[in-house]
Amino acid sequence: MTRTLGFVQLAIFRLPTDDKYFRRFALECFRTLGILSRNRRCRWMADPADDSRSAPRYTLSVIRRGGPNVAQFDESKLHQFVGKMLGDLGGAFSVPTVRIGLRLGLFNALHEGGPATSDELAKRTGGLAERYVREWALAQAANGFVDYNATSRKFSLSPEQAMVFAEKDSPVYLAGAFDLVAAMIEGEQKVEHSFRTGAGVRWGDSAGCLFCATGAFFRPGYVNNIVQNWLPALDGVEAKLKSGAKVADVGCGVGFSTLLMAQAFPKSHFVGYDFHAPSVEEANRHVVA
Exposed, middle or buried: residue 219 (CB in 10 Å: 0-12, 13-18, 19+)? Predict the structure, then answer.
């Protein structure tokens, strides 16, 4: 709901608390999201006609510069848009904690060892600091990435969650996706520079390990499709590979596709090619791993 009175636009929002610090935080969120400009003076005023105890209604007074014909906005559309933005930001905020959990083996420890309190989980993963493990586990529970039993205070990984965070051969294992997001953020300034100059960013220059994150992201698809679905869909190819053939895997990246085919068809000879030297080096490390 909005209305315009001269230079002042009033918008009504329902807040879950009458705490002044929460109202200040909400205002800062509006400014951060670009809903309000930082050069505009704003204030909250309690609505005297509102008798709600659990969710007080406040009027946000936005002082605008310029003429009286200030722009109107649809409150329902605004709330829907802000909700989407907060959901997107929540997903972005989860990337660092998920990557920490993957590197420290926290997801695997829950998957392999079963439900655990934060103290048990800290010990299970080599003596990590319990307080940090507790905050991490609660954050994952809030995200819905792990389950939490409030009675036993134990965290656990459901079979569905394990397919995403622990089962590396699962078709929906997404550890690589989180690393891919981090690599894209790492390369942000280089891409921004290209916007200004029109130049490109070479594959190997974008981020420290964009190539290995990309390989990890695509690996589950290769594991569950190359031999089972993709090669059989090509007329006569599977038969040739079984009897023995020479194969060039052009654009092999870090070698996952090449190695999977070589393991499935031992009579054939596979050679992976890629223009990116670090990818080839990583692929050769996978061969001897």
Answer: buried
